[in-house]
Design goal:
The protein is mostly beta strands. The chain has helices at residues 2-21, 28-42, 241-244, and strands at 50-59, 63-73, 79-86, 96-100, 106-116, 122-133, 138-151, 163-165, 180-183, 199-203, 239-240, 249-252, 255-257, 269-277, 283-291, 299-307, 314-321, 331-338, 345-352, 359-364, 373-382, 391-398.
Length: 399
């Protein structure tokens, strides 16, 4: 009885809000059944490890960054993290995707980004983060965190990569803040990772014209005050495809894929790994893993709708595999570019094998594409088998 009373104290406000807002909504008994079930699972653990704590690090209109502490991870390659966002009736809300950095062995922290991609605005009250056994797809340890947040629909935010606008609404005792544009990238994750503060890349600041210094008046006339000219908009010279990957359209032989997919998904998957140690024994930055469909000659492709900077001449990246790949027969890497996907032509077609280490992937951008809106496609094709085709792109970009 004490346990049920405690649950009512914790979750009572959520259920009360639900009953008031929706004229009763879900039956209170059903909600409590879900609460009790999750409370039991929250205490769960296994020899694979457990989720110890979930912290909300940063919130934007359609992106929330988390820091998830895990303990006792015995086989990092076998587990993944799954996030569910729920409303005041304890229902899982649709339209959310999540991605995370590498899960460390033993104890450590994992950077997780949650992105809302649906059209309508939704209101959440919390989220659940759980460890999943990729072999059985069973969630064996889960933790909740309060997240009273209004998610903006139709923003096209990117998971852990992209541009998001912070809410400008102030509270009753706080002044409104002007929106700032922040670049959110996965934190660099090592053996003892820590969340990094997203870098502010642009802020709109109102400024009054500043008069230039005036000389002494001569001949009874005075010089007209000069004003500083408006700053010229600087065009980017590099398109960071790693940061844009969450907004790309990812497909495989099995159809459309979700960014930040599970490693056991036989349809194929794409994940942002941040910093990761690769098959050359070195730690590389901005590592994007793309595994083709689990079938002979399977494929995976990401189509990026981007504007090529006028000074850019090439698309380039490193290419290789995750560590301990011994059974892959290699993959074929193809990079295509065109005004539309149907009109795209290949600028890179290259075989990459685990024994090659990290190789340079580079293709020239046709002059007529410079300064234009294009579709750029990164594609990975499996060979006769797709076994251990754990291919990664390293710092892919248009330069």
């Amino acid at each position: 009885m004490v346990g049920i009373a405690a649950l009512l104290l914790v979750f009572g406000p959520w259920t009360a809000v639900a009953q008031e807002e929706e004229g009763g909504g879900r039956d209170l008994e059903d909600i409590l059944k879900d609460v009790v079930r999750d409370a039991v699972e929250d205490q769960g653990s296994s020899n694979l490890g457990r989720v110890a704590r979930v912290s909300v690090v940063r919130r934007a209109a359609s992106v929330v960054d988390l820091s998830v502490d895990v303990e006792g991870i015995s086989d990092p390659g076998r587990v993944t993290l799954r996030v569910e966002v729920f409303d005041s009736e304890y229902r899982t809300l649709p339209g959310f995707e999540s991605s995370h950095g590498p899960i460390p062995a033993g104890d450590g922290s994992v950077a997780v980004s949650v992105v809302y991609g649906a059209v309508e605005d939704v209101q959440s009250v919390g989220l659940k983060v759980g460890l999943v056994d990729t072999e059985t797809q069973r969630m064996f340890s889960r933790r909740k965190a309060a997240l009273p947040w209004e998610w903006g629909g139709g923003t096209g935010g990117g998971a852990s990569a992209g541009l998001s606008t912070l809410s400008s609404r102030g509270s009753g005792d706080q002044p409104s803040r002007q929106p700032v544009v922040v670049s959110i990238e996965p934190s660099r994750v090592g053996d003892t990772p820590a969340m990094e503060i997203p870098t502010i890349v642009g802020v709109r600041v109102a400024q009054q014209p500043t008069p230039m210094a005036q000389g002494p008046p001569t001949g009874g006339t005075s010089a007209a005050p000069g004003v500083l000219g408006t700053a010229t908009k600087v065009q980017p010279t590099v398109v960071d495809l790693y940061s844009a990957a969450a907004r790309a359209t990812w497909t495989s032989d099995a159809g459309r894929l979700t960014f930040g997919g599970e490693t056991g998904d036989t349809r194929g998957y794409v994940r942002a790994l941040g910093d990761a140690k690769l098959n050359d024994g070195q730690v590389h930055h901005k590592v994007l893993q793309t595994h083709p469909a689990f079938k002979d000659n399977g494929r995976i492709a990401g189509a990026f709708a981007v504007t090529v900077p006028k000074g850019a001449t090439a698309v380039s990246a490193g290419g290789g595999f995750l560590p301990n790949v011994t059974r892959s027969d290699g993959v074929k890497v193809v990079v295509k570019i065109g005004r539309t996907a149907a009109e795209s032509t290949a600028v890179v077609s290259k075989m990459v094998r685990p024994a090659d280490g990290i190789v340079k992937i580079a293709g020239a951008i046709p002059a007529e594409m410079q300064g234009k809106d294009v579709i750029l496609t990164l594609e990975v094709q499996a060979g006769p088998t797709s076994t251990q085709d754990w291919f990664v792109w390293v710092e892919p970009a248009i330069r």
